[in-house]
Amino acid sequence: MNISSNDNRVYHPLKLDNGLKVLFIQDLQSEKSAASLTVNVGHFDDPWQRQGMAHFLEHMLFLGTDRHPEPGTLSQFTSQHGGSCNAWTGTEHSSYFFDINNEFFYQALEIFSRFFIAPLISEAATEKERNAIDAEFKLKLKDDSRRIYQVHKETVNPLHPFAKFSVGNKETLADHGRCISHEIKDFFNQHYLANHMTLAICSPVEIAQQIVWIKSLFADIKSNLNIKAAIAVPLYLPEHQAKQIYITPHKHMQKLIVSFAMPNIDGFYRHKSVSFLAHILGYEGQGSLYAILKQRGWINGLSAGGGINGSNFKDFNLSINLTDEGVAHYRDIVESIFAYLPLLKNPNAHFDALYQDKKTLLDVAFDNQEKSRLLDWISGLSANMHHYPEHEYISGDFLMQCFEKNHWQQLLAWLTPLNMRIVLIDPDVPTTATTAWYHTPYSIEDLSPKWLQQLDRIATPQPDMALPEVNPYLKQKITLLELESKSAIPQRLINETGFEFWFKQDNQYRVAKGHFYLAIDSLTAVKDVQHMAMTRLLADLFMDKVAEEFYPAELAGLSYQLTTHQGGLTLHTSGLSTNQLGLVDKLLNHLYDGRYNPQRFAEYKKQLCRHWQSGNHNKPVSQLFSQLSASLLPWNPTPEDLAQALEQCCFAQFEQFCTEILSEIRLQALLHGNWQRQDAERFINMISLRTKTSAKNAEFAKPNHYLTQQTQHRVLLEHADHALVVYFQAATDEISEKVSLMCLNHVVSQDYFQYMRTEKQLGYLVGTGYAPLNSRAGMAMYVQSPNYTADELLKFHNTFSNSYADNILQLSDLDWHQIKMGLLTQIQEEDKNLRVRSQRYWLSLNNNDLTFDMQNRLATCLNSLTKQQLADFCKQVFNVNSIKMTLLSEQSKKNIQTVVQQSKSL
Ligand SMILES: [Zn+2]
């Protein structure tokens, strides 16, 4: 098998007698084990009269098997032992995966294997779970991507399985005479065949042992020799092409999608011809489509290449975020796209050079691969096993053999007006119909033949259009630097009032990459709500201003981001360590230059206000959370307040603000990665030089509101669902209290889910979470329901929590031990890659943990926590009279207002 040069895992592909393709992976360094099984069945296989069946079956597999009849056994078992499990159902595939502490891997595999051999699919569980499916469907009713997807489904060839409704609900999955569970079983028996499945597993266990396990556990999955029939009908017939589609969004959105139909393009993967085409059309540097359309004031963003794809279709999309001007000029934008195409028609040597750039990057990416989260990686692998031959399971995503002219001509031949659909999404478009299920308003009409002919005749590019240049950032050699010191944690190289610089050379992951963080705290940024809003706007405008200039840097694997935090701005750069100093230097230069374009100011101000105002379309639980954090963090106002404040602000005020925000600042920086001490010193000199006009003496701490009494908020929401959030805040910053809250959350989360969602069927969105605000620990419990009011939800919640302490006392010593071990693994989880490690260092600095040992302190404290102590803590926290904040939704057609009620007891 082809693997990366820095990959020290052992791989062994094997096909079992029943046809199951398995990839065994031994990773001696892995702290966890994981498995993922992908089956070539998805919602395309749903019977026409049973839409949502594949998805329903996916849920049912978790709800009991012959040897483990209890619902949720795998979820319980994995969460008790430091892991988790999940699944998804796609168009043509469904996937199931879990991870767990190494010593429990075999047991978990045994539970998992029964999913695919003997699921119970009992009538009782089916009846209940149908409500969960229905709630999952309702949860997404207002979700624009679903709403737009449904329009797509209703405007294609109605005989193609893409036209089916994928999620399912109470209606499509209702009982017909007898319980639907019988049909689900038939569906399982027909489709869950070993010869349509792939399994990837990874563990420190030896390959030979892994093989013995898998053969004994998975050999009983049934198989037959039938090859799955290919989809025989095309996605689009000629009458579905050359169309104009209008869609009204739910949230504010102005978007143009120009879509070209292609057949299956899997055969191009060794050359990545389609992504190369997307790279050229989606380029953002000088002369590109993006740069030209942005200059005209028509667009805010452009991406190329996305779109649905499957075994007999691929949409090649140009997706464009429009300005108000752009909506009026959308036909001119389409004409510009066709005017750019002639540049691609006669590929010369320049194309080979551009292709080589992309290839170099992909090679660097392959050889400097960082480990991602095991569960994400393994689930991606089992899906890839359906698309690539055995020796390319791992490398398939990274292959780029050569610029293939035949592919290129073939691709260009598909980019024609007659093969195109145009989708315009805007609040003011004319609509004549609404979709099924999601009720999306839309209309569809023919594109005028005259205009199509005009488009077809465009043969010369517009004068300012140009192909990308060869990337200047790829010229420097990429090398790993010698290790200098063995220091285990970052060192503070500068410790002055107003300027701290922390540095650490990476000695663990050894990739030619690094991360640089710079926090700029400024009292101007938090003077009042308007200043906080302007800080957000500044970050957006800055990113917009520098986008074109640094696009080649981004392509060369360097990324940068200016964001806001409570109290100021954070600059974060990452990627290849070579060239990063130069990038930061140029970025700071732009920031201090402080000049912005008034047109872009007006555009971004409008966008940001709209974005904040559309917060009231978010799902109820999210709205309650945003109210919660606004109540407890004074520097984190609600979106509505921010929008109101920004609306009052003019360009002159903003310009004034841009100079003020950089006077009286405090700087904190972290450099971590493939750099030596002398590089750190170069960074320090550069920062000192760039910021020398700023007074660096600001001293301040982020304010927190602390709950001192029981508080209840009723939040008026315009949404059909109801919601409840209960938030407990620690009384002190003591480690012991942090640990008690973490542990309580860990113990309660599965049970809460089980009670509120599975047993009482209150809603799909149910959960608990350890949720600190700034450095103060906290825990949140939430539920959103289509059927019960917030007050009813609160009653259920109280019934659950009133007696919960007894559950803790009733835990056996073994259970208690395992719960602690499970949490301990989470706390002590090794940082998987350089990025995660950098993030942790940076978070420690933000929380003033200057010894970087919070993990150890938490672990030590957790070790000494007893069951009795946790039960006592639980009694105190879950007491009806305890200090907490309760947020309840209240339905309203009016604007959002908050009514604050405070009461001592309920
Ligand atoms: Zn689901």
From TrEMBL:
Record-listed E.C. numbers? 3.4.24.55
The segment(s) forming the Peptidase M16 middle/third domain are 366-645
Kindly name one Pfam family recorded for this protein: PqqF-like_C_4
The record places domain Peptidase M16 N-terminal at: 22-155
An example of a Gene Ontology cellular component annotation for this protein is: cytoplasm
Similarity comment text for this entry: Belongs to the peptidase M16 family.
Q: Which PANTHER family match?
A: INSULIN-DEGRADING ENZYME-RELATED, NARDILYSIN
Q: What is this protein called?
A: Protease 3
Q: Which organism is it from?
A: Pseudoalteromonas tunicata D2
Q: What is the lineage of its organism?
A: Bacteria, Pseudomonadati, Pseudomonadota, Gammaproteobacteria, Alteromonadales
